[in-house]
Amino acid sequence: MGERERLAAELRRLRDQAGLSGRRLAEGIGGLSQSKVSRIEAGGAMPTLPQVERWADVTGASPGQRRSLLRLAERAFTEIHAYRASQRDPSSHRQEEVRTREAGARMVRTFQPSAVPGLLQTAQYARQVFALSQLPGAAEGLPSAVAGRMDRQLALYEQDRAFEFLIAEAALRWRPGPDADRLLPAQLDRVASLSTLDNVSIGIVPDGAQALAYVSHAFVIYEGHDIDDTFVTIEAVHAAITVHDPDSITLYERTWSALARMAVFGDEARGLLAGLAARVRVPVE
């Protein structure tokens, strides 16, 4: 059970202990609906710290319970989920987790400085990327991991969903595996093709762009249907980090805005992609 699930269970326990209905609790806290209370208690939504404090007040939590609840909430704002060494197929399992997150978001914004984002990858590119994984069980799970990533891409064609990507030029030139020169042109062509979808925005940060932000890692902002349902994920080598803290989310949103000002879009981005593809295209013998 993760910190978010522990927080949800404790909040639900306090409400039950106080003998309050979800509606009465929502009225006492203010700014919450009964359905939002239900989603918080199910672990489907994250309350803000002030809402947790009001929850403790309304349910009559003791000082000790209140301190424990606030510590739990602070830990839940930034969760670290280590990839399990005992998990036989970690890469495939991660694809299901990510697809669930994407399905619940109104908009998904991805910054990637190192490789083509997973939602834009061709099957062969994805296979090469997964083949580089050092996680135990990754080799055995490679076919299902690739299939899971390809299945996730169906969401790009749903008009009621929005996807935005910012990709460093260096990420587009990265060569995963020995056959990279052969697979890169097709991969770059796919990125250019997907950039023409109405609900997909793809910006490229050129190597020579004046820096307006410094970011050393990829991140994804999942914008929920409610303002406090937004969260950020970061993929590290050993674990996935999920950020719910509002101040930290605001920092990532400001960083995204700065990166977007460095990027080129539309025909200019597609021209950059075409130039890169031409330089790496292997002549047919």
| Domain module count | 2
CATH architecture of the largest domain: 2-Layer Sandwich
The ordered string of helix (H) and strand (E) elements is HHHHHEHEHHEHHEEEEHH
Strand content: 5-15%
Largest sheet: 7 strands, mixed
InterPro entries: Cro/C1-type_HTH, DUF5753, Lambda_DNA-bd_dom_sf
Pfam families: DUF5753, HTH_31
Domain HTH cro/C1-type: 11-66
Organism: Actinomadura graeca
Describe, in plain words, how this protein is organized in 3D.
Helix content is 50%, strand content 14%. With 285 residues, the protein is of the alpha/beta class. The protein folds into 2 domains: 3-77, Orthogonal Bundle (434 Repressor (Amino-terminal Domain)); 83-280, Endonuclease, Chain A (2-Layer Sandwich). Strands 1-7-6-5-2-3-4 form a 7-stranded mixed beta sheet, with helices on both faces. The longest helix has 17 residues, at 246-262. The chain starts with a helix and ends in a 5-residue tail after the last helix. The mean pLDDT is 90. Residues 11-66 form the HTH cro/C1-type domain. This is Helix-turn-helix transcriptional regulator. InterPro entries: Cro/C1-type_HTH, DUF5753, Lambda_DNA-bd_dom_sf.
